[in-house]
Amino acid sequence: MKRTMLTLLTAAAATALVSAQALKVDSALPAYKKVSGVSGSLSSVGSDTMNNMMTLWAETFRKAYPNVKVQVEGKGSSTAPAALIAGTAQFGPMSRAMRATEIDQFESKYGYKPTQLRTSYDALAVYVHKDNPIKQLTLAQVEAVFGKSRRRGFKENVTRWGQLGLTGDWANRPISLYGRNSASGTYGFFKEHVLKNGDYKDTVKEQPGSASVVQGVTEDRYGMGYSGLGYKTSGVRIVPLAETDKGPFSDGNYEDVKSGKYPLWRFLYLYVNKAPGKPMEPLVGEFLKLIYSREGQEVVVKDGYDPLPAALAKEELAKVAR
Known about the structure:
- The chain is an alpha/beta fold.
- It has helices at about 10-20, 50-65, 80-85, 100-110, 140-145, 185-195, 210-220, 255-260, 280-290, 295-300, 310-320; strands spanning about 5, 40-45, 70-75, 90-95, 115-130, 135-140, 175-180, 205, 225-230, 235-240, 240, 265-270.
- The strands form three sheets. Strands 4, 5, 7, 8, 9, 10 and 12 form a seven-stranded mixed β-sheet that branches.
- Helix 2 packs antiparallel against helix 10 and helix 3 (about 80-85) packs parallel to helix 4.
């Protein structure tokens, strides 16, 4: 995605704005209070999954501070550590945790580790075309569809819909696969948590963005893809998932994500450069206060993701206050 000033939401984010209104944020979250003397420029480089959310946070922030400029680049989580290390971005959004090697590279330059902040809950969804009648899948079945290794022990390599129980016209149709590219944290999370670090099949059509995966499945009646839950549109269905065939199966609703019942939940992270014992730059600090305010967590909901409880938001903000 081209680096640009923030102006427009993607179609996927616009859909999420409508579909996620029912979810409410914790009433104990504080309202954001505008302060004086805030100006300058901010840059965010990292996760495509979080690109729309960073856009919405930036737009909300600029309503309070019109003179502040914010740039967002969302080419994948793997681009965040390098940007933070180089000092070309203040924010490194990531849909996975930093790897030990990435943390070591940061620490070798600055002498301390980057600060990891949990911003919201997310879940990876397995998407099928809206007309697909499949009812549910286990992670072993999903792995047998997308992976070569079958480390979860499913009985056979799955290439056709009939192997997943579909009948009639569906039975002999090949499953067309859509996924993310290797720069994506979503790619890495799915590989670790579904494939158990096995290899993807060569037939997976790698997409440059989360919305592209959903769009591919929308246009492909026999497609299946994985992407963030916040990218759901009317053209696809989310398949309920469970660890085993004993269940419980879940479609990734908020309560199941918070409780851990849904098997593919995760936090979405924001990494910052916070020197121990030194205050954050005021511009960066105020942006973070917005994220953990009522308005900031309402942005999370508007973008189709799940907000943090007030206690957890307070805990994260405290990491950059000391």
